[in-house]
Prior knowledge:
By secondary structure, the chain is an alpha/beta fold. The protein has a domain at 58-130: Nucleotidyltransferase, domain 5, CATH 3.30.420. Helix content is 31%, strand content 17%. Strands 3-2-1-4-5 form a five-stranded mixed beta sheet, with helices on one face. A hairpin with a 2-residue loop joins strand 2 (69-71) and strand 3 (74-76). Helix 2 (81-91) packs across helix 3 (107-119). The protein is rod-shaped.
Amino acid sequence: MRSIRRHQPGAAEVAMTPMLDIVFILLIFFIVTSSFAVEDAIGIEAPAPTDGGDATQAMLIRVTEEGLVSINGRYTDIGAVRANIERVKAEMPKAMIVVEVMPKTRVGVIALIRDAAYDAGYVEGVSLMLSRTD
């Protein structure tokens, strides 16, 4: 009589090599096809050093934490900043702009003031100063 051998089925194994190949191909695909956004920084220049011979005229723009804007001590609306900057530029053509902001001032307000200064013709001479709240 012949004995019947029963074949014990082995444990099923999953081949990991093809799966790893697919994962690496997908990773390379997503890296190659992704586009990275380049963020622009606010362009604010440091004030130019003076030799101390003549005093530099400056226009002081203060911005509070609530977003209130004052130009040389006069409170104004954010929409009228450009007109005020142009008026002061007509009176003092070589005046610099100093923007004094509080620590918790919104960046959008600062960007609007910087854009208004650029639109009024101040490509250079816009300085940012952080005010201390002691």
